[in-house]
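From the pipeline queue, job 12 of 40. The input is one protein chain; the requested action is below.

Action: predict structure.
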Amino acid sequence: MNIWILDSDSGVTLFFNHHMTIPVNEDLISGLLAALNQFTIVELKQPIEAIDMGGLRWVYISDKPSNLLFIGADSKETPTQMLRSRLNVIKQLFIQRYIPDGPKWRGSWNGSIDQFKSFKTTVDEYYEQWLQAENIMNIAEFFDILGIFQQLFNLLHAMVEEHFSEDERVKTYSRIEETFVKFKKNKYINKHEELSKIEFNRISGFNILSINPTNCDFIEVETQIINLTKVLISILRINIDPKHRLLELFHKSTIYDYILNNYTHLKELNLDHFLLDLFLLR
């Protein structure tokens, strides 16, 4: 993955980092990328988001407060959303470190890009983590993780249906629906097509199996599903009385049996500690 961070107006490259060789001068590419983005803004009234060009896949992220343009390029085999997610991480890290005051940063900048060179170490560290994640979490493992969480969602939904009183059930579903509406409206979720495919209704509960693993960042999707599971358990605790009764219902709904019967596999997927903590300790 190659990364450019440009001044949107001038096209000046503040930072460049490469993990693949492109047989063209990086400054020439920087000018072309900035010009192409400016052309689409003027002519099409909107910036570029992604484009396949020169045998590579390119994604653009514009940060208006700082007036910076972040561009990432990788092979066409890399899913666009995965490339965009990783570039967004780079953007956030760069802004936190060098642009904490938004547009005011230019007032204290001396025009030298030397101060940004140390950012290469950070990018390289994250890139290495992503490569390791790709080696560890292949598509088969990702499907396993989706299946595990889907089964847990099914068991929790059955528990609410079978063991909650009518009042507890109504309050629980209302709270889940309110939370899920906020989840779906989140700008971050809207920008991640596969995350927006997560569904919920009172009859069948949550459905996450429509997520396409070939079109998303595995780590990002898993993180959001884990967060969603945490929120769901919190809602269950809030709407049941007495609170300690929830552990008994986890047992009745065979959630503990499911975790124990699949413990070896959960451990292989690094989910064992999280699930034990979630269902036993919290």
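Job complete. Strands lie at 2-7, 13-17, 50-53, 56-63, 68-75, 199-201, 205-207.
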